[in-house]
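Forwarding the complex inputs:
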Amino acid sequence: MEAELIAVGNELLGPESLDSNTLFLTRALAAIGIRVARKCTLSDDLAVLAPTLRECCRRSPLVLCTGGLGSTEDDRTTRAAAQALDVDLIRDPEAAARLRDWLAQRQTPLREIDERQAFRLTSAQWLPNPLGSAAGQWIPTPAGFLVLLPGPPREMEAMFIQHVRPRLSALLPAQALFTRVLSIVGLAESAVDALAAPLYREFTNPITTILSTAAPSVELHFQATAPTPAEAQARADQLAAAVERRVGEAVFSRERETLAGVVGRLLRRRRERLAVAESCTGGLLGKRLTDASGASDFFNGGVICYSDAVKQEILGVPSAILAKYGAVSSQVAQELAHGVRDRLKVEWGLAITGVAGPSGGSGDKPVGTVFLALEGANSAALVQHLRLYGGRAQIRRASVQAALDLLRRCLLADRAVE
Amino acid sequence: MEAELIAVGNELLGPESLDSNTLFLTRALAAIGIRVARKCTLSDDLAVLAPTLRECCRRSPLVLCTGGLGSTEDDRTTRAAAQALDVDLIRDPEAAARLRDWLAQRQTPLREIDERQAFRLTSAQWLPNPLGSAAGQWIPTPAGFLVLLPGPPREMEAMFIQHVRPRLSALLPAQALFTRVLSIVGLAESAVDALAAPLYREFTNPITTILSTAAPSVELHFQATAPTPAEAQARADQLAAAVERRVGEAVFSRERETLAGVVGRLLRRRRERLAVAESCTGGLLGKRLTDASGASDFFNGGVICYSDAVKQEILGVPSAILAKYGAVSSQVAQELAHGVRDRLKVEWGLAITGVAGPSGGSGDKPVGTVFLALEGANSAALVQHLRLYGGRAQIRRASVQAALDLLRRCLLADRAVE
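Prediction (whole assembly, two chains):
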């Protein structure tokens, strides 16, 4: 089945915002085998809305329309749908009572204007809103169905999952869908594609999609369909496994974990702890490690050593080494990893020092020069010299990913030895 | 004038990506007084494209269409435009020669399929592509003009600025546009609106827009048009100033600075330095302070004190205070601010400790309980108790903004005293 999506709202036509509800809907519809054929963003002008809805409902078996169900003057979607389908609106006393209750719970009296939300197309079924006052509507059309959903993403998503998806699933042939995602670090999208494309190119089931994320990482999505969930998963996993053998250890997760999440899992399993020393990343590595709750199991903290004074006084980097090699050097990185491991009394010390730019670069240490160092209990310090490209934010993110990956690979290698 | 935007490409209809070209175009068109009336995303199916283009060109004086100008099988925009307008395509030998040269410079031979890019509508003028091989087209329509632009954002933006905007400006009455942005911290969007709406509600020039950002902050945009740039600015600034008097010190910038940028500017002017102690934010405050290059002027670094051991051993928080009040308390926040200021030898120590959740909350310290402390050279420590709502990421971002704002207000008050 094909669907058409309409987002309603003047604010979505300004230079500041995009409608993002369609991303959720596209994904949720794909998961039950419905493809989005076109998307449209319209102002809340009745003269635009009504004829467009009419046209969409004539050509598409499924039209989902988000926004414009509120109680203010510029919420006109219900009226537009009635005009588009030549159907009358009726005031539903039960809906009005529900609305009054909902508002009363929030100590808000029912205003006359709120009454708008109690009107539905005579042909419509209400779709309850689990999180707000604006109910949706499920409306038969000449070609299939028109679904009116509220604009706020939380309300729209909850309503879709609880009330729209079950109705759609009932209309469709049973078809299971499974997506396996391989997350990859340390390789560019083009490099991953060069390795993987020869393997996936000829398959249309699973469908393979390659994506670069901001982390930065690369994701390969293998989406398979089959009569049962187990068959769909087997199909996706067979191809994913072949690709993983080819890409190797750069694959850090098959379960959509973050890289920091994987590192945390490996440390937790060993009951070991980590501390970080960050110069050019200024706290981003610590932030990433603590993005998920429970990081205190494996993360003690760290030192943001943005000045030489902090490197020396808090982390004990000898001033002679700073003077001889400069703050951005493998020697200082090693001292920082050692210092933070020693001072914070943990098994692993991980350090980043570099030139994130745009200022501060020099001939032998251009912007993007970054040194990582890792010191563990049983191993000599590992040092890595990176040469990164891009803007400041990109260089900082790539430094953090590389540091996490250095630790991940070390933890994996160590495990292999055990 | 009103415009309609069309984005072409199957990939824009998938669950992973949104068309973002329209954001640039909406902003760039607004700057010359053209309003976007509707936006549409279409697959590159000729049977969808041609009739939609026909309809758009009939109703809208300006239709901008991005994507589908490449040389592959699924680049069908030119053919669709020809069908939509009942105009023939011709092969342009000069365009073919330019294409050959362009490819030759890149050591790429001209393939037969590339020749597609040498075809234009007989009625069209070429729009040169400064950064790629796909030229755009400027095509008269019954209602005005259809503009075909390439999909890659860099190419599309460069082509728009160099070749489309001058053509559009020539069609329009001279009109200058100026936008003043007030950035606000510490107030919810609804609170800002309650203060500001009575002042801006009756004005249509400037147009006022209110926005919540993820920082979190609230922005008020005042966009004014006038015959000259100076008049437009005066018009926007007059209303902005009235609103600013009403909103007060919560306005932290009129120049689209970040809050960390404002704090950095105030510290730099005083030649004073800052260090941070972060518990629940795990490094995010340091990250924010170092997002822009040059932060070493005012930021020495800090300590990510994610465990009690680090709070005690690196920052000298007495274990008795930790035991008596708990790590999330005003007393510990004060000790952290003092410890980091003292150990890192700077004028200002700023500390955050709290429960970011989702786990770790308790009856008297639920998730969202956060204590901030600031210690300066000339003042007793300031402590602030926050009660925040939302998910972990939201609570951490709001904590960082509140900490930066505490320091900003203190620096401003101090300046007032001087």
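The first strand of chain B starts at residue 2 and ends at 8.
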